[in-house]
């Protein structure tokens, strides 16, 4: 599907991918890796050279994974093979000078934000025509990954409530595309959450919505896990979070819950904001909320998604399950922050 911006909606199904993943400072750092890949994957390459930039991982420079779709696994010379999961993208091909590729990125992500879509945790570049020795003219398809909210929501509804209720709650969800305007998207989200509340318990609502958060990078989680394993004290996780992030509300740990808030997406803009609308636009990572012209009339249970992002960290480190969430404050309730309590199935302290 394509629109007047010449931006396409692309769905990548599961793909076997042979790659080398390293941090780089500049694109030229990829050249020796490509040479190795071409030699070792010869005869098994079934698609174009592909570069994936991973976000929110603790590396210096760019976390870059470059490789080829292949017909069978390749495991040698620093190459590893894995299945790239299903993903959706907004895509636009950049032709011309490489130093102008940022403009193509801006168009892809500009449309994404305008339509109230949150990005995924990676960007993909498909190399249709690229010469490392002569990069003045290139043909690279820039694919901005989409947080597949609708797809994950439908799957979670099936898992926790069954097919019959899923069809009732998800009504008209398949009509929502990446080109759906933000106001229409907001209206559908409002209506589906109203139906969800009628057909489920609070516990089910939390399980469904928290499990459609973005997947938190395991490399980032492991940073915090190392701190915890030094003393097996959950307070060390909080202290490391406070060091790494700029919390507006001080996080705390009680006997069986963590009280934590989301940090601002743009802390400088948030601090300079003079009214709630300005704060909302700089605070929320969810583009459906931040890009809306006015505060969306959406039930605050929508913020269980943000709670799910936090829960991934704690559950992986502690191997304890979050069973309940209280939304103490929410931008969607008119508050200046999103602030929640995550309750666990076992004592923390």
Structure summary:
The chain is α+β, with helices and mostly antiparallel strands and 349 residues long. The chain is 37% helix and 24% strand.
Q: How does this model look, in words?
A:
Helix 3 packs across helix 4 (163-169) and helix 6 packs across helix 12 (304-318). This protein has 349 residues and is an alpha+beta fold. The strands form two sheets. The chain has an eight-stranded antiparallel sheet, covered by helices on one side. A four-stranded antiparallel sheet has the order 9-10-12-11. It is built from twelve helices and twelve strands. It has helices at residues 31-40, 101-114, 149-161, 163-169, 182-199, 202-210, 218-231, 234-244, 267-272, 276-283, 287-290, 304-318; strands at 8-12, 15-24, 50-54, 62-69, 80-84, 87-96, 119-129, 138-146, 252-253, 257-261, 322-329, 339-344. The longest helix has 18 residues, at 182-199.
